[in-house]
Batch of 4 targets.
Target 1
Amino acid sequence: MSAASFIFSVSCRMKNLLLLICCSIATSLLYSQPSPHAGKRIAIIPEPVSLKQGSGSFLLPARLTIWASDEKASRSAIRLLQHKLSTAAGIRVEVAGGIAAANRPAAIKLALNASPDETIGQEGYRLSVTGSGISIAANQPAGLYYGVQSLLQLLPEQIESAQLIKDLQWEAPLVEIVDYPRFGWRGVLLDVARHFFTKEEVRDFIDDMTRYKYNLLHFHLSDDQGWRIEIKALPKLTETGAWNVKKQGYFGTFSKPLPNEPRNYGGFYTQEDIKELVAYAKERFVNIMPEIDVPGHSLAAIASYPELSCTPGANQYKVNSGENFMKWGPKLTALVDNTLCPANEKVYVFLDKVFSEIAALFPFDYIHVGGDECAKNFWEQSAEVRSLMQKEKLKNMEEVQAYFERRLQKIIAAKGKKFMGWDEILEGGLAPGAAVMSWRGVKGGIQAAKLGHEVVMTPSTHTYVDLMQGDPIIEPRVYASVLLKTSYQFDPVPAGVDARLIKGGQANLWTEQIYNTRHLQYMLWPRGLSIAESLWSPREKKSWDGFIDKVERHFKRFDIAEIKYSRAMYDPIFVSGKKTDNPFKIALETQIDGLDIYYSFDNSFPDHFYPRYAGPLIPPKDAVMLKVITYRGKTPVGRMIAMPIDELKKRLR
Ligand code: ACM
C-alpha cells in the first residue's frame, strides 16, 4: 500500500468512524435519557448470573422494528414482545428477519448465535441495552424467549397492563446481562385432580410460570377425587371418574355424599385439549409431564372399574368428594380401598392401555407414575396378594409395591419413556433407571442419588406452595405452613450429594383446598418467585434482603397484571414459648427487616400510634385478644391480625 493510499484509506476509515460516532451520538440523543431508573435498582426475578448496569436508559420509540436473525425460530420471543409492546405501550412493531434486513435500523435485535456460546448453554442469553438499542443473543430460541422475559422486567411495570397506558416513557435501563439457569428442571406441579381447572385456565397458568422462567408443568391428572384425561380405550374413566359432588368447607372433613346428590362437579381434558395444551406449552418452552398416580390415590379409577381393586364389591366405590376415607399416621390405613391390586393381571392390562395413550400424547421423556401414600391394609387382607408374595418371594408390603413398580417400569419403558415416581418407590428396592421425586424432605432424594438414580427435589418443607404462608389464624387453613422465607432457603442440592444427579426442583401446588384460579395465584405468588430463584440463579447470587426488595417491585407488576398474590410476608410471626414459661409471654417476629409491629390488648384496631412491639409481651390478666399489625414507617403493610390469647396458650410447646 502506498503512503498516499494509506493516508487516504485511514482518512476514509476515520470518516466512517466519525460518521458512526456521530450516528451513535445522534441515536443516543434520540433515545438515551437521563434516567428515572438512575439509582432505581433493577429487579429481575430470578436473579441473572451477571448484570452490569450503566447510567441512563434507552427510550423505546413509538414505532419500532424488531430484527431477528431467524424470524421463524424466534417467533415465540417476537410474539411475546409484540404483544406486550403493542397492548400496554401502544408501540407499533414491525418485524424484519434474516441477513437481508440486518442493516435496517432496529431498536430490538434478536440473534441466534451462528456458533455456540459455551457460557450460556441451551437456555441462556446475553441481553444488552445500550444508548442505541437492545440486543438479545442466544444459542437456542428458548434463550431468546428468556431474554425477552428479562427485558420485560426491565421496562416500567405498566408493561403488564392489558390496557393501553398513555403518556409514559417506555424505557429500559442501560445494562449488560449474561444469564443461564442453574438447573434444567424448573417445575411447577399443578393438581387438576382435586379440583379441575379448564384448558383456558391451564394456559394462563403456563403463561404465568414462564414469566419466571419455569420450564416444566407437572400435570397431576388423576387422584381419588378425579380422573382428568380422556383414555379412549377406557371411557368410564372420564364418564364416571371425572365427577364428584361439589362440597365447600375443609376438605377431608366433608359429609359423605347422599345417593341422590348430583355427581356433576369436575371435568376432564379430551385428547384434543391435551394436544392443544402440549403445543401451547411447547411454544413457550414448557414441557408437560403427565402424572397418573398409582397404585394408591386411585379411587377415581376404581370407581370407574371396580375390578382393578383387590376388593371388587361393585357399587361400593364412589369418586371421593372430600369426605374422610384415610387414617393418617405412621401407618396409613384406607377406610375405602383406593389402591390398584398388584396381584391382578387386569391391572397391568389397564395400565398398559392408559400409558399407551398417555405416551402418545405427551412428547416429554418422563412419565410420572405417583407411588406415594399407598395404604396397604386391603392388600394385607387379600388372598391374591398373599399368593403373589409366595410366588415372587416378597417379604413385606413394601416389596409388593416394589414388584408393582417394576412391572409398571417395564410398561413405561416399552412406550419409550422414562419412569419417575414419588420417593416411596424407593422403599421395597428400586430398579435401575427409575427417577425419584423427593417430597418427604430431601432424604429420599439423597438416598436415591447415592444409589445412582436421577432426582428432582420437591421437599414439602420448602416447596409445597399449597401449605399456608402465614399464621393459621388468618390464612385459609391447611395442615402445615411454608413461609416465604423458608421457601427462599430451598436448595435442591443438599451437602454430600452428587450434583449431577439432581435434575432440579419444583413448586408443588396441590389443590385440595383450592377451588379457583384466583386462589391458585394467591398460593403460588410470591413463593413461586423464591423457588424460581432457587432453581435458576447461582447459589451465591441469592440474597434474602435483595430478593424482598425485588418481590415488592413485582407486587406492583402483579397488581397491574391483575394476578393475585399473598402479602403474608409482611405479617408478624407468633413464636410459641414453652408450657413451663412463667409468666406466659408472647414473642413476635417478622420475616422482613425494617418493619414495626403495633399491638393492642383492648380489642381495638392498632395503628402506628399504639404501642410498638419491642420484646416479649405479658398479656394483661383479663385480656382475651391480641391484635397486631405491621408498618413500614407510617404505612401499614401487614394485615390486621386478631389472635385469641387462648389460641396462643394452646400452641405452647
Ligand atoms: C405427595 O405430596 N403425596 C406427593
Note: Residues 372-373, 422, 439 surround acetamide (CB under 6 Å).
Target 2
Amino acid sequence: MSNCAVVGINWGDEGKGRMVDMLTENADFVVRYQGGGNAGHTVVNEFGKFALHLLPSGIFRPGVMNILGNGVALDLENLWDEMESVRKGGVALTPDNLRISERASLLLPWHRELDGLEEARLKDKKYGSTKQGIAPFYSDKYQKKTIMAGELFYPELLREHLKDLLEWKNLILTGVYGAEPADLDALVAWVEKYGKLFAPYICDTGALIREAGKTGKSILFEAQLGSLRDLDMGIYPYTTSSNTLAAYAPVGSGAPTVHIDDVIGVVKAYSTCVGEGPFVCEWFGSDADELRRVGFEFGAKTGRPRRVGPIDIVATRYGVECQNATAIALTKVDVLSYMDKIPVCTHYELDGKIIDNFPFPAALGKCKPVIEYMDGWKTDISKVRTWEDLPLNARKYVEYIEQNIGCRIKYVSVGPERDACIIR
Ligand code: GDP
C-alpha cells in the first residue's frame, strides 16, 4: 500500500481534517508530525462534529493506529481535555489506537504564559499568536531546553532536568517580563500528573512507523496549517513556528527514510487567513461579510472571524510547488454557489509590473491583486457526487484552477460530510 501526506497549500483551514477523515479508509497509520493544538481540524462524521486540535484525524476509524510524532508540540494538558471531549462523543481512545512519541517535547505551562506576555509586550506589532505557547515552545526546543515525553519514565533525572530548566526560565520570566517566577514543586506536580495519565501511550513511535513502512502498511501523514505558514518557505515572520511541508513529514514522524508516494494538497475554493500578515487578495466590507457568513469562516480554536478573499492563483501555485503536491483536493466549492460571478486573483501587480511568482514576504505588502471573473453556476451543488453532474460553470472553474496551479485536482469537495466529495 502507498503512503500519502495530506497537507495545506495556503494559509491553513483548507479542510485538511475533512480530507484526512475521508482518506483514512485506506490507511493503517495516521501520523501528526508537526505543530501543536493552535489550529483546528473540523471533522464531521457518524460520531458527530469535532474540532480536533492535536489528535490525528484517523481516530474515528476502527483499526487505524494514530500517532503523535516527535515533531509536534506536545501539550499534554490540552491533549487530555481534547481526548475527554472526543471520548464523550463515543470514540474509543486507548493505546490500541493512539501512541505518542517518546521523542516529542513537552509544551509546559510557562510556554503558554510566555506567549501571552510576549504578545502583550508587542502591543500593536503582534504576530497574531493564538497564545497556545507554540512559538516559545519551538524556540526552547531548538535551544535544547525542553523535556522529551520519554523522560517521564526517568523520574529522578526528570526532576533535575526540570530544576535546571526552571532556573533558566525564571531569569526570563522575572528579568525580561517582570512576571512571577515558576515554582518547581508545582511544575513537577504538573508533569507527574500528566505523566501518569499518558504513560501507557508513550513509546518509540518512530520504530512503529519504520516497521510499518517495511511491512507494506499504508501511512497517512497529516499536517497542520499550510505552505504559506511554513517557518522556512512561508510569509515569515507571520508563519507558524514549525514546518508545515510534506518534506518534513518523515523527520517529524521519526521515520526519516519512509517514502511518501502521494502528496495531497488541500486548497480552498476561495482564500481565508487567520491572524496577522500580508494577505494580498483580502476582501473587506459587505462582500467579505457575506463570504465569511456563507462559508462559516470563524476559527475552529479561537472563534476569530477569518480574513477572506477570492482564490489566489499566485500564492496557490507557490504552495503547490513547496509541497510538491501530486494531487489537489479543492474544498468548499459549494460555498461559491451564491455568487453571480466568481472572482479569481490571477496575478499580482508589484511596482506597476504584473508578476506571476510569489514574491519575497517583504514585497507582499506592496502587491495588488489582479482579479478576473468567471461565470457562476447559481445552483446548490452540495448533493452532487459525480463530475458529470456538476454544472458546466463549476467544472470550468475547477479546470481553470487546475490549469493555472500546475497540479491535477483529483477531489472536489462540496460539503463537510464524509461522502460529499467528487473523485475525478
Ligand atoms: P483544516 O484545519 O484544514 O482541517 O480546516 P478547518 O477544519 O479549520 O476548516 C474547514 C471547515 O470547512 C470545517 O468546518 C469543515 O467541516 C468545512 N468543510 C470542509 N470541506 C468542506 C466543503 O467542501 N464544503 C463545506 N461547505 N464545508 C467544508
Note: Residues 155-176 form the longest helix (22 residues).
Target 3
Amino acid sequence: MNIQNYINGEFVNPINGEYIDNYNPSKGEIYGQTPNSSKEDVESAYQAAKTAFPSWSNTTLEERSKILLKIADLILEKLEVLATAESKDNGKPISLAKQVDIPRAASNFQFFANAITQFSSEAHESVGLNAVNFTLRQPIGVVGCISPWNLPLYLFTWKIAPAIAAGNCVVAKPSEITPMTAYLLGEICNEAGLPKGVLNIVHGLGTSTGQAIVAHPNIKAISFTGGTKTGAHIASVAAPMFKKLSLELGGKNPNIIFADCDYEKMLATTVRSSFANQGQICLCGSRIFVEEKIYEQFKIDFIKKVAELKVGNPSAKDTNMGALVSAAHLAKVKSYIDGAKLEGGKIVFGGNKVTVENCENGYYLQPTIIEVFDNKCSLNQEEIFGPVVTIISFKTDEEALQLANDVPYGLSATLWTNNLNRTMQFSKQLQTGIVWVNTWMLRDLRTPFGGVKNSGVGREGGFEALRFFTEPKNICIYSPS
Ligand code: NDP
C-alpha cells in the first residue's frame, strides 16, 4: 500500500515524486511505499499550518475539545484496523497494539481535550503598587512534532494532541520506518472535522524531512522523541535559532530488586519490563540489579519464566514477542549479544535469532539474559533497545544506588522493596525523571514525563505539555486607586 502526505486536509504525493520502501518486519518483505519528502513538502505543510493558525487559535476551547474527543472516538471505533496496521508496520504482537498502543492514542486525545478546558494561568496582585499581573498563555504558532518507530501512533499523538489542544498548528513527521498509522490518522482527523491545515503530516527520512522541519526558520518549537544522538543534533540546529525544545531521548533504566519485595509480583512484572514490545520501549528496565541473598534464586526463576515467552508471528493470538522493527536494528542488537563474551558477560538465556514458520525472513530474536560482572561494560552503559537485559548482584543499598546512577542516561528506574525508608531514600537519590516503586509503566497522564542526563530536556504530560506548547506573557496593569 502506498501512503501519501497529509497537507491542508488533503492527501498528496511528495513534490519530488520519490518514495522509500516500507517493510513488514514479521516477514522481512516490502509491502508499501512511503513518500521521501523534501524541504518543499515541509514548506507546503508549513504554509498550510500558518494559514490555519489565526482561526484555530481563536476557536473556543469547547469546540477544540469537541473535535479532539471525536478524534479519540474514531480511533477507538477503528481499533481493529489501526492495531492491525501498527502490528504489520512495526512487528509488535497485535494483542499489544490492541491493548496498549491504540487505546493509548485515543486516551492522548481524550486527556488533552479535557486538560485544555482546565488549563489556567497565574495572577499576581502587586500589593501596595496598585498593579495586577497576570500571565497570558498563548499558542506558539506552527510547531514541529517528530516521533520514533517503537510506539508509533502512541507517541505521535502524545505530541500532536497537546499541541493542537493548546491552539497551535502542527507539521509532524512519524518515523519513516513505521508511517502507516500516522497516515491513517489523517483520514480520522478529516472525519472528525479538524479544520484543514491544523495538522499536517509529512513522511520521509529523518536526515532530510525531519531536518527540514527542525531547520525551518518559522517553526518555533520542536517536540522530539528519539535517540540521544539525534536529539543532540537537533538541539545543535534548533538552539542557535532560539527554538523551544522538548527532547525525550534514550534510556538505560535500572530495575533494582531487594529481597524484601513481593517476589511473585516482581518476577511477573520484571518479565514484562524487560521484554514488552521486544524490549523496544524507552522505559524498559534493561539493567537488573538483584540483592545478593536472592540473586541465585531470582536467576533460576527469571530464566524459567522468560523461557515460557513465545516468540512468533505478531498476528497470532498466543504470541508474546513479535519481530524487531528492522533488519538493521536486529543486526545492531545482535552485535551487542555477540560481543557480550568479550566483555566478560555470560549469556544465561537466549541470544539467538528465531525462525518462525511462514515468516522465515522476519526479524525475530530470543529474549536474552546476560549475566555481567562489571557495570562499566558497554552492555550496561549503552542503550541496546531490544530484547536484551543484564543481571548483576549487589550487597548493600549504597552499592545498588551507585550502580543504578553510574550511567549516562536518566529516564526511569524501578525499585522493588517493601521498606518505606529505603523507598524514600532511593526516590530522592535516583538520577532519573521517573521512579516506579513496586510497579512498572503505570502511567497517569497528568504526571510530568521525561528524563535527566542524556535522556532529555523538558517534560511532557499533563499541564507540562500545555506549558511547553504555549508562550507565557506577563501582563502588568497599573491602576491608581
Ligand atoms: P531516531 O533518533 O533515529 O529517530 C527518531 C525520529 O527522528 C524519527 O522520526 C527519525 O526519522 C527522526 N530523525 C532522525 N534524524 C533526524 C534529524 N537529523 N532531524 C530531524 N529528525 C530526525 O530514533 P528511533 O526512531 O531509532 O527511536 C528509538 C529511540 O527513541 C531510542 O533511543 C529510544 O530510547 C528513544 N525513545 C525515547 C522515548 C522517551 O520518551 N524518552 C520514548 C520512545 C523512544 P526516521 O526514522 O524516519 O529517519
Note: The radius of gyration is 23 Å.
Target 4
Amino acid sequence: MILNCGKYKLDLSTPRVMGILNVTPDSFSDGGDYTQVDVAVTHALSLVETGVDVIDVGGESTRPNATPVGLQEELDRVIPVIESLTAKIDVPISIDTYKPAVMRAAIAAGASLVNDVKALQEEGAVAAVANSQAAVCLMHMQGTPETMQDAPHYQDVVSEVADFLKARADHCQQAGIARNRMLLDPGFGFGKTREHNITLLQQLDQLTALDLPVLVGLSRKSVLGKVTGSDVGARLHASVSAAVISAMKGAKLLRVHDVAATVEALKVVSAIQ
Ligand code: 8Y7
C-alpha cells in the first residue's frame, strides 16, 4: 500500500507517524518572523531525528470554539516554515488547511500532502489538489469548528462517517485526484460526543476495510481526557494507547504530538502485523 504524495511514495505497509507542527503565534510574535520560523524548523528537525514519517504544518487552530484566522495571516505563518523545511528535510510535508489559496501556496512551497478537516468542500479546494501531485487527507466533521461540539447527533455514527468519506473520495476521483493520493479520516472530536468517538474507535475496522488508507488523530484529544481524567498536558499514555489500538485496527497514519513514544509503540505493532 503506497500513498503518492508529490515526489514521495509513502509506504503504508506498516503504520506511519504524522508529527504535528503548530505554527501559531506566541505573545512575542505575529508569525513569519525569524524567531517563529526558527523555532518551528528546529522542532521539525528534531521530529525527523526521532523518526517521523510526515510533518503536518498548521497555522490555524481547528479546535472547538477556535477563532478563525485570516488568509494572509495563515499564509504568513505557514509558508516560510514550509519553504525552510523543504530545503532542510527529506520527509513529506503536510499542510493542515481548508483554504484553497493556502493549499496552492503550500504546495508551491514544497508541501506534498493536504490535510483538510473539511474534506475539500470549500469552493476551489478539489481543483487546488487535482491540479497538483499532492496527496489529500479527507476528514469527516459534523458542523463547523465554531459550533461542532454544541449538540452532535447521528443515527449511526460509523455508517454516516463511512458514507460521507466514500462520497468525498468518489467526488475527488471524478475531479482527477487518483485514489492512490487519498487518505480517509473519521475526524475524532470533530462534531462527536465521547460515545461517538468511542464507537468510531471500537468499529474503526469498518473504515479500514474500505479501499483507502485511514489516518487517525486522537493525540491528546478530550475524549482521552474524559476516559482517563487527565488534562491535556498529561495524556501521553492514553494517546499512545489510542495510536496502538488504531494501528491494530488497520489505521496506516497516526497524527500525533508525541512522536518518539508513538514511533516506538508502533514498532511493536509492526512486529506482530
Ligand atoms: C485532526 C486534524 C486536528 C484529526 C486530521 C487536534 C488538523 C485538533 N485534528 N487533522 N487536525 N485528523 N486529519 O486536537 O483528527 O489536533 S486539530
Note: The chain has a mean pLDDT of 95.
